[in-house]
Amino acid sequence: MTGPPSPLRPRDRARATGPARPGPRDPARLRSRAVAARLVIMQTLVVDHPLIAHKLTTLRDERTDSPTFRRLTDELVTLLAYEATREVRVQPEVVQTPVGEARGVKLARPVPLVVPVLRAGIGMLYGMIRLLPTADVGFVGLARDEESLVAATYANRLPANLAGRAVFVLDPMLATGGTLETVITMLNQREAASVTAVCLLAAPEGIDRVGAAFPDDGPLPVRVVTAAMDERLNERGYIVPGLGDAGDRLFGEI
Ligand code: URA
What we know:
Blueprint: H1 10-15, H2 27-39, E1 43-46, H3 50-60, H4 66-84, E2 90-97, E3 100-107, E4 113-118, H5 122-129, E5 136-137, E6 139-144, E7 151-157, E8 166-170, E9 173-174, H6 178-189, E10 194-202, H7 204-213, E11 222-229, E12 232-233, E13 239-240, H8 246-251
Parallel strand pairs: 1-11, 4-5, 4-6, 4-8, 8-10, 9-10, 10-11
Antiparallel strand pairs: 2-3, 6-7, 12-13
Helix pairs in contact: 3-4, 4-5
Bound molecules: uracil.
């Protein structure tokens, strides 16, 4: 059986600054150093893979229609899920093959909980449970007020007790971090063993906020796994350059 999530490996720390590999004086490199300095407060993995970069570029493109956006989100989440589940707990299992005995592992119980944040997180659900088909699924609904940017909870279908359970939160855009902080607080109150947020995109402001609320040396291990760390938020709390409103692009404007 493996233990609780371990700190980032050196390889992952290098990747946590993003896919770009500019020269030493390049402004992008200096900016990414500043981002890396912030990241020490929380484990953040920017998954650096050409297929992810390729799919993400099409996802960002304003010409991409909803059916394509949904398909690419699904594919991207499965690729991110592979990294996000790297620390998932397993227990030894011996099976009989046609030619002998094989010692392997199976996912440990209690099974993980996957929590898509309504509404946009629903677009990420099947991409995630494709790799974790035995996971349970809980739901949290938060809507943010477009003036104050404060998120209010309108739905909560979570088990009362999450003791010993790894939780994977699905929210495409880690922007201000307000939604994620609220959801992780709910999971912490239910005594979740660890929380891994899977996000298509993250902004430094959101990473800072969640990292300050749940620091690396705190009792609840919190990690963020994302396809890219973007530059910043704009005055409306949107990620720049981002991809726009993820919920609208997945499901249409409401
Ligand atoms: N939510 C979105 O859908 N997009 C953003 O850029 C920020 C929050």
